[in-house]
Amino acid sequence: MDFGFIDSLKKAKDRGRNPIIAEIKPFSPLHGDLLKGRDIEDILTAYQNARAAAISYITAKEFKGDIATLKKICRDAELPVLRKDFIRDVGEIERSAEIGVSAVLLIARHLKDETSEFADCCFEHGIEPLVEIHKPEDLEYAGNARAILINNRDIDRMETDGGDVSVTARLASKIEGFKVSGSGINSIADLLFVLEYVDAALIGTTFMMAENTEEFVRSFVEAKK
Length: 225
Prior knowledge:
This protein is an alpha/beta fold. The protein is built from 10 helices and 10 strands.
């Protein structure tokens, strides 16, 4: 069964575009306020005009996200929406389904043996579970996931390590299924590097810090080797 999230990323690649999940990220523990007074609706429009393949939004309070904004994004978005948060309660998966997200992030390091249960709950509610890993040992908890996010940054360090795209290169060969690289993708060179190993990339802070969001994101979407 396809829930639209992976399919949208595959279609982007088939149509000659780099499959990018563009993240709307209100705040960074490293860089501070990323909205700079902008309306989230304008950022969403810029991402869609730039032909990103999917949208991500962080609802975690540590990044100053909220459910009300997620609802607005799901209502207005023409693309599949990924909810990112520190999900530890299956009730949040049910809540996400009611809001209309296409995918939910599950952090294997935090959920451990519960990861498979949470992933099954996602499937039951028509949501794609995107299981995050950072180290090889995280993979033992991701057995039933169809999509894996390789986080190039240690999430528990809250961005203080900056991220290292070589993490993607080291882990990708150990993963079956659909692979996404996220964090630390700061340039087109970084993007093209990770796409040698994975099927899609998730980019947030770099896009949020751009002066001309639409033009900058389009340059990533259309970049060629």
